[in-house]
Amino acid sequence: MPVITPEEIKRAIESGISCEHVAVDGDGRHFRALIVSAAFTGLSMVRQHQLVYGVLGERMREEIH
User: Whose CA is closest to 63, among 35, 28, 16?
Assistant: First the structure.
């Protein structure tokens, strides 16, 4: 399985959510992202995560955690 880079995850997030800031680090399978976006305004933490997971799609099931 190809290794995914933090930069690829960052680009995927930025392509699906309008963000003021995105920083991603990780080891190719597990990642941590700091995302600042007006799209999160008024959303619960769970809903914010769902928004990001929706952008990452199948990658969340198969390639990253």
Answer: 28
Tokens of 64: 């990253």
pTM of the model: 0.85
Do residues 6 and 28 touch, judged by C-beta distance below 8 A? no
**Measured distance CA(1)–CA(33) in Å, rounded:** 22
Report the distance separating Cα 54 and Cα 2, nearest Å. 21
pLDDT at residue 50 in the model: 94
What is the arithmetic mean of pLDDT over 18-35? Answer: 94
> Is 90 exceeded by the pLDDT of residue 30?
no
Q: Which residues does residue 32 pair with via DSSP β-bridges, in sequence order?
A: 25
Task: Report the candidate in 41, 8, 39, 40 with the shortest Cα–Cα distance to residue 26.
Answer: 8
Contact 58, 4 (CB under 8 A): no
